[in-house]
Amino acid sequence: MKSNEEIVREAYRLAEGDVLDGPGFRALFTENGTFNDVPNGLTFRGDQIPQALTGFASVFPDVHRELLDVHALGDVVAVELRIQGTHLGGFPTPAGEIPPTGNRIDVPTADLWHLRDGKIERFDCYNAANVLLAQIGAAPDFDSAIAAAAGA
Fold this sequence. Notes:
Blueprint: H1 4-14, H2 22-27, E1 29-37, E2 42-45, H3 49-59, E3 64-73, E4 76-86, E5 91-93, E6 96-98, E7 104-116, E8 119-127, H4 129-135, H5 142-151
Parallel strand pairs: 1-8
Antiparallel strand pairs: 1-2, 3-4, 4-7, 5-6, 7-8
Domain SnoaL-like: 14-122
Pfam families: SnoaL_2
Protein name: Ketosteroid isomerase-like protein
C-alpha cells in the first residue's frame, strides 16, 4: 500500500498540464471526497472533482505545481507549493471572462490533504488568489469599492 505522501504526490503528478488525468485524479479520492478551492469558495464533490482540474487547465494549460515542502502527519499531508503557468485561456469571473494575457503566474499556495484508508477524503487548497489575479492584470478596483461604500 502506498503511503499518504506517495498518494498526494501522485495527485499532483496527475494534475500537471502535460499529464492532466482527471479520471485518475478522481480515483485517488473516496466516493464522496471533496476538493475545496478555499479562496474562491468552491467545493467539488465526487465526480465533480475532475472539473476543478480541467477548468484551471483550460485557463493555464501548462499548469505546473512546484512542491516546496511536503509534511505527512498521520492522515494529513501538508504541502507548501507554487502554482505556475501561462494565462492562455479565458478566466471566468462573475463580471465576465478575462481574456488571455499570456502572463505567467507563480502563485504561493498551501494545501491540506486529509486521507482515510489510502484514499483522499478532503483536499483543501489555499492559493493566494489575489496574487494570481494581479499577475494576470486583474488587480482589485479599490476606487469602485470605496465609491460604492460611500454611496450606501
